[in-house]
Automatic annotation (TrEMBL):
InterPro entries: CoA-transferase_III (IPR050509), CoA-Trfase_fam_III (IPR003673), CoA-Trfase_III_dom3_sf (IPR044855), CoA-Trfase_III_dom_1_sf (IPR023606). Transmembrane segments: none annotated. One of its GO terms (molecular function) is transferase activity. This is Crotonobetainyl-CoA:carnitine CoA-transferase CaiB-like acyl-CoA transferase. The keyword Transferase applies. The lineage of its organism: Bacteria, Pseudomonadati, Pseudomonadota, Alphaproteobacteria, Hyphomicrobiales. The keyword Transcription does not apply. Keywords: Transferase.
Length: 367
């Protein structure tokens, strides 16, 4: 595997840092999860369980080793420092300044281990007026303007279905760590990575910033290309109360569908771009899709070259034939499901270790 021989010490909890370090573990890195005495990672206690661990915890902590360290105890902190001396990567997600108070900041650790790649994940980064402000995913999404364009049919902000800031920050962190490790092969020196959840979300708004960058105004979501202003990028209700999506606005898809429905005359409205002028097309499609249940529409769309999908439930999504064909869900020895690694190498593919560590299970081996 690509990362065999890389040792990672991870002090983070909840979602962004653990998801990042699990991605490294799936590709061969040895990840040592450092937990505080007591409850350990709060993720161990969040949500439902289908075995000894919660699903939440299992989904981001498989394949790791767990040690319990009281960083306020000088002897235990020294044991951790000796472990970090052997590490390639260090991950923490404290509020700015906490790592320094605990004696595990970059200056301290890099002085002992100059090749260390150190990643700090926080809500707003290590500088700026919000650096000490507490925040989780949704607050950073709100400040970055994303919730302000995630509107329901009532034009009021809606809670996103995914923790976008958490996952984006983890993936940005994965990219940064791998770049730093690559550079280290040339210089022998590690680096410090300052990751902001807020900026990770802001950086993901690239395709919706046209009105703001070009005209200095807030986008009107129901008039914009990917947030409701296009008849061919919308959600429609079916006769049985289920929903389907159209998600492709290229002229060929527009014409293929409208031709099949006998309304090719509506195509020019869509080809003018997004906006209120597409209302007649939206109305026609909404009325049409309400005439049959979702399963019939799925069969009807099958021969057409159109970007279409049913709005699946999560159980339906995991049972989808595409998921099965790609092996996107794995099962451990107890039969519990795991999401497979997304990065698929031809050579040295991932070999995820599906065991989940008990709290402090590896204290004897590691410390």
């Amino acid at each position: 595997m690509k990362l065999r021989g890389i040792r990672v010490v991870d002090l983070s909890v909840f979602l962004p840092g653990p998801y990042l370090s699990m991605s490294l573990a799936d590709h061969g890195a040895e990840v040592i999860k450092v937990e505080a005495p007591g409850e350990g990672d709060p993720g161990r206690h969040i949500g439902l369980s289908d075995g000894p661990d919660t699903v939440f915890f299992r989904n981001v902590n498989r394949g790791k080793k767990s040690v319990v360290v009281d960083l306020k105890n000088p002897e235990e902190r020294e044991r951790l420092l000796r472990l970090v001396d052997t590490a390639d990567v260090f991950i923490e997600a404290f509020r700015p300044g906490v790592a320094e108070r605990l004696g595990v900041d970059y200056a301290t650790l890099s002085a002992r281990n100059p090749g260390l790649v150190y990643a700090s994940l926080s809500a707003f980064g290590q500088s700026g007026p919000y650096r000490n402000r507490p925040a989780h995913d949704m607050a950073t999404e709100a400040l970055a303007g994303v919730i302000g364009i995630t509107l329901g049919e009532d034009d009021k902000p809606a809670i996103p279905g995914l923790p976008v800031a958490d996952i984006l920050t983890a993936l940005q962190g994965l990219s940064g760590i791998l770049m730093a490790l690559l550079r280290r092969t040339q210089t022998g020196r590690g680096d410090y990575i300052d990751l902001s959840m807020h900026e990770s979300v802001l950086a993901a708004t690239t395709n919706v910033l046209g009105p703001t960058f070009a005209e200095g105004r807030q986008p009107i979501p129901k008039h914009e290309r990917t947030t409701g202003g296009s008849a061919f990028y919308r959600i429609y209700e079916t006769a049985d109360g289920r929903h389907l999506t159209l998600a492709g606005q290229e002229p060929k898809f527009i014409r293929n569908l409208l031709s099949a429905l006998g309304r090719l005359d509506l195509a020019p409205l869509c080809e003018q771009g997004p906006g209120p002028h597409q209302a007649p097309v939206v109305a026609f499609l909404a009325e049409t899709f309400r005439t049959r249940p979702l399963a019939e529409w799925v069969s009807w769309f099958e021969p057409l070259d159109v970007c279409f999908a049913p709005v699946n439930t999560l159980p339906e999504a995991l049972a989808d034939p595409q998921v099965e064909a790609r092996g996107a869900v794995l099962r451990d020895e107890a039969g519990r499901p795991h999401l497979a690694p997304v990065i698929r190498f031809l050579h040295e593919p991932a070999e995820p270790r599906l065991a989940v560590p008990a709290m402090g299970q590896h204290n004897g081996d590691m410390l």
